[in-house]
Automatic annotation (TrEMBL):
GO MF annotation terms: kinase activity; metal ion binding; phosphoenolpyruvate-protein phosphotransferase activity
Job description of the protein: General (non sugar-specific) component of the phosphoenolpyruvate-dependent sugar phosphotransferase system (sugar PTS). This major carbohydrate active-transport system catalyzes the phosphorylation of incoming sugar substrates concomitantly with their translocation across the cell membrane. Enzyme I transfers the phosphoryl group from phosphoenolpyruvate (PEP) to the phosphoryl carrier protein (HPr).
Gene3D superfamilies named among the record's database cross-references: Phosphoenolpyruvate-binding domains, Phosphohistidine domain, PtsI, HPr-binding domain
Ranges for domain PEP-utilising enzyme C-terminal: 306-571
Keyword check for Metal-binding: yes
Single GO BP term: phosphoenolpyruvate-dependent sugar phosphotransferase system
Documented EC number(s): 2.7.3.9
Record: active site: H238 (tele-phosphohistidine intermediate), C536 (proton donor)
Region (Disordered): 1-87
Organism: Terracoccus luteus
Binding site for Mg(2+): E465, D489
Catalytic activity field: L-histidyl-[protein] + phosphoenolpyruvate = N(pros)-phospho-L-histidyl-[protein] + pyruvate
Any one GO CC term of the record: cytoplasm
Name of protein: Phosphoenolpyruvate-protein phosphotransferase
Length: 611
């Protein structure tokens, strides 16, 4: 075992235990009472929630652990004007309707601004001002006079403005998305259909959507969203990743989710992927009891990750910003294995300055004094577009200039980030290590490591998420201090299956024997040059797969903090030799399902009974 992966400070045995363990959240319990549940205190009432909806259980994919119960809030899709909308009879009356629609939009944005904080509040207030722009109403009036319908006139006026904003560039060009959002909301208002996006709601609820954009998920109000369900998405979609990081139970790929009527109570199980619509209250109670039994079993263990024979495997957190860092820092884990820095800037319209970045990074490092924090430099492009790091449209963005390739074309962005990281690392006591995303060759690794060291940062690493880099990990890792397997992208590229396509979930399954073979090759290469190899893809948080990964030679596991306790338990019940045998059994299987079944059958039942 190399030292770099075992030198993190061990938390004291009495460190606070992971609070994200899968229990029904207090907010969910509150919701239960709101929803008319008669036995919120745990009785066995057995009455269905009084909604008139039929009780029904459906199966999706659980991506963020825990259970929740609450009323559905449907996220409405963008609204477009109807095709061939007829001209209006009375242009003056129609103009009054259009004016009223824009006013409705402004008022609802202002109302929402009162429910959020700081930056989000400023953004919403500024967007409300766009809706009150007199020029926009006037432009719509011209379209009405030219013979277009109400919704079409709004849409055409907005597009005229958008073209002007785009040609002005700079600040104006950056407001185009907000302008179109106002337009879509005004079209919805004039048509009398629900406004697009997350509606205003005050009661703790379960958000249901076709899918959520990363920025939309990141700005959800954690205190009111007790669960997330999407009809699309997949195990490694960013909705799934963000939900797990935020500790919100989530299920993706739930057929017919968007047709569940708003307000109907649902119970979701983010581990099994089961969703029950209008559940019997006995089921909610049973779910809650099972979750609390599991939580107490997990709470018995604490401290550094190790197998039952003492082989150390660091248990680390995946985080996406200061709020996550503060929450994860208070938990019983050994540090951060992946700080996705691009998540901080998902809605930024211009590149952050060194000072702005340093301030954020200080906030992330501070909770981890004496512990490691592995920072990934901006992984912009493809599924994580950043407005200020856009190199223009590409035919195949996932295979294009993303990750480190984008940094090579915009070294200014990389240098300012490294400078800010170095400042923040000096100002705090965290053991900061920096790694690059989407590295494919040894030359790229060397180029990155040089820049990291030139900025005074002592440890450089690379994500191993491109099969080419995995197969040649010996050469790639010679250039740096450590590697971290990004199994989300590694599965995507090994199986040639777009991770954004939920329908390809079976191919994207990290249990695919071919993916395990590539992981094995990457670990073998790392061992020959004595470099630690962690995993920071979602597979690290699957307790059975975590055992296989350790058996293949992985030295640390980084995951959403809510998943750490069950992985710690899995390790504690198996020896390193057990893990190696499980890895052999998985690789000897012909299919992903066979691999999982073989490992589940051979793992210790104390674990499998619990998961
Ligand atoms: C991965 O690809 O496995 C990974 C951890 O990075 P991301 O999911 O952010 O692409
Ligand atoms: Mg990746």
């Amino acid at each position: 075992m190399t030292t770099a992966d075992t030198d993190a400070a061990t938390p004291s045995p009495d460190a606070p235990h992971a609070s994200a363990s899968p229990t029904v959240s207090p907010t969910a319990a509150r919701t239960e009472a709101h929803s008319g549940g008669s036995d919120g205190a745990g009785g066995s009432g057995g009455a269905a929630a009084p909604t008139g909806a039929q009780t029904e259980t459906r199966q999706g994919i659980g991506v963020s652990p825990g259970t929740a119960f609450g009323p559905v809030v449907q996220v409405a899709p963008p609204v477009r004007p109807p095709k061939n909308e007829p001209a209006v009879d009375d242009a003056d009356a129609a103009l009054a309707d259009v004016k009223a629609a824009f006013e409705t939009v402004a008022v609802s944005l202002e109302q929402r601004a009162t429910l959020v904080e700081d930056t989000a509040q400023q953004i919403l207030k500024a967007t409300a001002l766009i809706a009150r722009d007199k020029g926009l109403v006037k432009a719509a009036g011209k379209e009405l006079a030219a013979g277009h319908g109400r919704a079409t006139s709004i849409d055409r006026a907005v597009e005229t403005y958008a073209a002007q904003f785009e040609s002005l560039g700079g600040y104006f060009a950056e407001r185009v998305a907000d302008l179109r959002d106002v337009g879509s909301r005004a079209v919805a208002a004039v048509l009398g259909v629900p406004a697009p996006g997350v509606p205003v709601f005050t009661e703790p609820s379960i958000i249901v959507a076709e899918d959520l954009a990363p920025a939309e998920t990141a700005t959800l109000d954690r205190s009111r969203v007790v669960g997330i369900i999407t009809e699309a998405g997949g195990r490694t979609s960013h909705t799934a990743i963000l939900a797990a990081q935020m500790g919100i139970p989530a299920v993706v790929q739930l057929a017919g989710a968007t047709s569940i009527p708003a307000g109907v109570p649902v119970a979701i199980d983010g581990d099994s992927g089961e969703v029950t619509i209008a559940p019997d209250m006995a089921l909610v109670t049973a779910q809650r009891e099972r979750a609390s039994r599991r939580a107490s079993a997990l709470a018995e263990l604490s401290g550094a990750g190790r197998t039952s024979d003492g082989h150390a495997v660091a248990l680390l957190a995946n985080i996406g910003g200061v709020e996550d860092a503060v929450a994860a820092g208070a938990q019983d884990l050994e540090g951060v294995g992946l700080f996705r820095t691009e998540f901080v800037f998902l809605s930024a319209t211009k590149a952050p300055t060194v000072d702005e970045q340093a301030e954020i990074y200080r906030g992330v490092f501070a909770p981890f004094e004496g512990r490691r924090v592995v920072v990934r430099t901006l992984d912009a492009g493809a599924d994580k577009p950043l407005k200020f790091a856009d190199l223009g449209p590409e035919e195949n963005p996932a295979l294009g200039r993303r990750g480190l390739r984008l940094s090579a074309e915009r070294p200014d962005l990389l240098d300012s980030q490294l400078e800010a990281l170095a400042v923040a690392a000096r100002d705090t006591g965290a053991d900061v290590r920096v790694m690059a995303p989407m590295v494919a060759t040894a030359e790229e690794a060397a180029w990155f490591a040089r820049r990291v060291r030139e900025n005074g940062l002592p440890k450089a690493g690379v994500m191993i998420e491109v099969p080419g880099a995995a197969l040649r990990s010996r050469d790639v890792l010679t250039e740096v201090d450590f590697g971290s397997l990004g199994t989300n992208d590694l599965a995507q590229y090994t199986m040639a299956a777009d991770r954004m396509q939920g329908a390809l979930s079976d191919l994207l399954d990290p249990w695919q024997p071919a993916v395990l073979d590539v992981v094995a090759a990457a670990c073998a290469g790392a061992a020959t040059v004595d470099r630690p190899m962690g995993v920071c893809g979602e597979s690290a948080g699957d307790p059975l797969l975590a055992l296989v990964l350790v058996g293949l030679g992985v030295t640390s596991l980084s995951m959403a903090p809510s998943k750490v306790p069950v992985v710690r338990l899995a390790l504690s019940l198996h020896t390193l030799a057990d893990c190696q045998k499980l890895a052999e059994a998985a690789r000897a299987s012909r299919t992903a399902v066979d691999a999982l079944t073989a490992v589940r059958d051979a793992a210790i039942s104390e674990l499998t009974d619990l998961i």
